[in-house]
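Service request form, structural biology core

Requester: graduate student, group of Dr. S.
Request type: structure prediction, single chain
Budget code: on file
Notes: please return the result as structure tokens.

Sequence provided:
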Amino acid sequence: MTATHSPSTELPVVVIGAGPIGLATAANLVTRGIAAIVLEQGNHAGAAISDWGHVAFFSPWNFSIDPASREILERTDWVSPDPERLPTGAEIVKDYLLPLSETAELAPLIRYNSRVIGTSRQGLDSSRTIGREHRPLLVRVESPTGIDDILASAIIDASGTWGQSNPIGASGLPAQGETDSSAWLVGALPDVFGRDRARFAGKHTLVVGKGHSAANTILALAELKESEPTTKITWAIRGSSASSLYGGGSADELPGRGALGTRLKAAVDAGTVTLRADFSITSLTPQANGQLLVTSSNPDRDQSISVDALAAATGFRPDLSILRELHLSLDPVLEAPVALAPMIDPNVHSCGTVSPHGASVLEHPEKNVYIAGMKSYGRAPTFLLVTGYEQVRSVVAAIDGDTASAERVNLLLPETGACCGSSSGC
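Core staff response, request fulfilled:
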């Protein structure tokens, strides 16, 4: 593909993040002959995914590889994985992202150990409105060599939301005592059979949350319990029913996702996992016996439980601090682009019903600034890689001036019963 109306050749497009969506963005930019710089906070591509590399995707390989990236890889000796197999996070990194990042096309573009600490317009803060579009965008980066400013023709933030966990507290704020309870908190996706095994074997763990991260952790603990019978597992949810996470079972077009809900329901029904519904955490209190007292208070009843570890799979939220000097148009509820928010609202949205969307939905008042991938969903869950791949294909086309291609968005998502709908009782 050749560029149609290429942006300025003097300034690159800056891509934030070298995960699947960031590298897909770079692949699309390279395909169109657009100069790019990719800034990655970690020391290799997909560094955030490596933190939960032990977890299996519920999307098989055929939903996990970006088309433009595949074209680049197929010009090397790369061997495409079995399209029907479910990869782990570690396999996504090893068999896809690392080979892609090492190609002749992408390797020169990526700067590792480079943390973006701010973005703006050169010489203008957010309060200045006249003539902004005529100034270059500015990206401030912290790296081992110091702090540098990079001028850009466009910014595509594909940095994701990993590491920006929602609080455990039920009101969107940390529970009382949460900041002093870090010794008991193990994150959303602990490595139950690897580095974190000693935290759980023969201990009592509370898993909080009603998403796929919670389900993965609960099922791993249930499997651990088979060899460590004194292991105890409690699952707490804020709502009155877990049916939305049990999902569509065999009717789910992503079998891995359907099986997750089926296995979880079986573990609860068998008594392997104790389910606590209507559990809204208000306080965490360290106890003299070394356990953590977790208290739930709501108008109907108070509950409490003492545990050895707490896995908070309460979802993530975007870090918008690096974008605060830019003019963004974000939904006040989901912190997603205003036009995208109604399509992904978890209060009414059912997975598999996301309308095809691209640059026109993701654009902001600040020209040539886009948030893509998981971060574009703000606080909404259920993002799929194929969604992000189509987002950035469209965005890059828009930056290139190829309006027809940018507007021609196609997205085929698997049907599912695994996420919250308006009548699911979430």
